[in-house]
Amino acid sequence: MIYRLLAKFNDDFGLFVFFLYLAAFVLAFLMVFIFPPGALALMLLGLIGFVGVWAVVVVMRSFERLLARKAIGVNRCPCCSKDSVFSLTPSVEWDSVVSCGGCGQLFESGGRRVQPEEDPEADD
Ligand SMILES: [Zn+2]
């Protein structure tokens, strides 16, 4: 449950930050005419805010991977909570990838969610 919320948060956080910065840009643009130092302050705040955004991304993704590793360690899928449904899937990019038989989600050994690889011979 916590894992799914965390995964959803990590998926949508980038878009949320994008819209936050877009709103800040509009506000800064309006401030140029009303209160110019405010626009400068907002720009500096935005630049410093990148450090905060980066920290949130690193911490939340590491929590997600930690929860996924724990769940996979006891043979439970972190996404659909089904037991003992994992099968090893060959992968070019990762050294060890397991796939869930219940929901089809792939995980690499570090707990990161992996997108299914496209068959290189499928498209021509
Ligand atoms: Zn699953």
Question: Could you outline the blueprint of secondary structure elements for this entry?
Answer:
Layout: H1 2-34, H2 36-73, E1 86-89, E2 97-100, E3 106-108, E4 113-114
Antiparallel strand pairs: 1-2, 2-3, 3-4
Bound molecules: zinc ion (ZN).
What does this molecule look like?
With 124 residues, the protein is an alpha+beta fold. It has one domain (2-114). It is 57% helix and 10% strand. A 4-stranded antiparallel beta sheet has the order 1-2-3-4, with helices on one face. α1 packs antiparallel against α2.
Quick summary of this structure?
The protein is an alpha+beta fold. The chain is built from 2 helices and 4 strands, in the order ααββββ.
Features:
124 residues; alpha+beta; four-stranded antiparallel beta sheet; 2 helices; 4 strands; binds zinc ion
Low-confidence stretches: none
Q: What's the mean pLDDT score?
A: 89
The backbone outline, from C-alpha atoms, is elongated
User: Given the structure, what is the number of helices?
Assistant: 2
Strand content: 5-15%
Biggest sheet architecture: 4 strands, antiparallel
| Extended strand count | 4
Q: Could you say how many structural domains there are in total?
A: 1
The gyration radius over C-alpha positions equals 20 Å
Would you list the SSEs in sequence order as H and E?
A: HHEEEE
Q: Give the fraction of residues assigned to helices.
A: 55-70%
